[in-house]
Every structure is written in C-alpha cells, then in structure tokens.
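Progress against Task 2.4 (sequence-to-structure conversion) is shown through the following example record, which the project officer requested during the mid-term review.
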Amino acid sequence: MVLNRVTYRRRLSYNTKSNKTRLNKTPGGKLVTMHASKKTKLAKCGDCKCELKGLPATRPCRLAGLSKRVKTVSRAYGGSKCGGCVRTRVVRAFLIEEQKIVAKVLKAQAGKK
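Structure tokens generated for the chain above:
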C-alpha cells in the first residue's frame, strides 16, 4: 500500500487562500505538492463595473512589472473607465457648458429689456 502523504514546500503551514496546492507526480514517480497562484480577474470600469477590454488579466504584483503601454488604452481615462462611460462624461460636460452659455445669453437679453 502506497501512502499519498505530502507536505507543504514553503514555510506557511496553514491552508489559507494564498497557500493553495495541488498534487503533481514527478518523472521519478514521486508525489509532490505544487503551489498554485491565485486566479486572476480582468480590470473593471470604475463607473459601471464592466470588464475593461485591452488589458491583461494579471495579479497586481505582476501588473506592477508591466510597461505602461500594456496597462492602459490610448484614450482619456484609458485603463480605468470603459469607452461608454467616457462618452457619457464628455457629452455631459458638453451639455453643461451649453447650458451655461444659454443661461448667459438669456440673462443678457433680459438685461436689455
């Protein structure tokens, strides 16, 4: 009868989220544990929480080592807001400015009368 007992290979000896392992058989027939890295998630838009396109799904530690061109999209708010949210922000800002201009014109016309 073969014992399938294995031990952790690192110092952390508790079954935590950061210490997940899976069994692996070596070419020599030995059963060892392989430490699995955490699953990655795609970056999300800050406004609508949808997944951002064009960005890699990596852990924050790996993301820090990547170059800037990989982490962003060439647009205003690229890499933090999706295109739809940026569009609504631009349109909203434009309409607010238009409202200010209309209010100023109406005030000038009322002052003439």
